[in-house]
Amino acid sequence: MDTHKIQLTVLDQIADADRVRKKIIDAASALYVKKGFNATSIQEISEAAGVSLPVTYHYVKQKSAIMRMIMEDVLNIFRENLLRMIRGIDDPVEKLTIAGRLYFKVVDQQREKALLIYQKSNSLDRASKARIMELEVEVSKVFAEMIQEGIDLGVFKKVDVDLTAYNIIIAAHMWILKHWHFKNRLTLDKYIDLQLSNILDTLKI
User: Fold this and answer.
1) Are 84 and 57 in a shared domain?
2) Is 173 within 8 Å of 107 (Cβ atoms)?
3) Could you say which of 21, 64, 133, 182 would form a disulfide bridge with 128 (CB–CB 3.0 to 4.6 Å)?
4) Mean pLDDT value across the chain
5) CB under 8 Å to 120, separation ≥6 — which residues?
6) Given a cut of 50, is residue 6 above it in pLDDT?
7) pTM for the full predicted model
8) Shared-domain flag, residues 73 and 39
9) Which of 61, 87, 103 is the last residue of a domain?
10) How far is CA 199 from the centre of its chain?
């Protein structure tokens, strides 16, 4: 990779924290996939990202922190888009359908990052592992609140809300974990349609 083409100036690195953070996350993800987590150094991540090593260390004290940043990035993409997409929508079925479809698509778009989290989460330090689990619970709460709203309005059956919310998350993750199987007969959109249909069938009265 020609790092000169993507090198940020020191001023850029100070002024544009979100851009720098994203470049570090994207570079680390690509290197982890190519070389493996243990074989990748922070210096290599710095060079691939076009970010100076001192600035990289400002964001990342150890490699495990990047896994947490990856999870935070996936969650932020989901939440920011969701808030925009469900604004003004009151129907619980429509809201849950939009949220589910969006989460499936975000997970697919961030497939390499999501796989890294699955593959390497057990090797992370305790604090990073705890943060990743906390972020996953935050995603489940998004779905849980919508399901509970539907129950309160009499649109959904009384179900185990936490379990049902996690079923949506696992269904999305199954697309990337078992993509080798489903890709032979289903497009992503068809897979989403089938999964959401199953989920809503268990919920709707």
Assistant:
1) no
2) yes
3) 64
4) 83
5) 32, 37, 67
6) no
7) 0.76
8) no
9) 61
10) 20
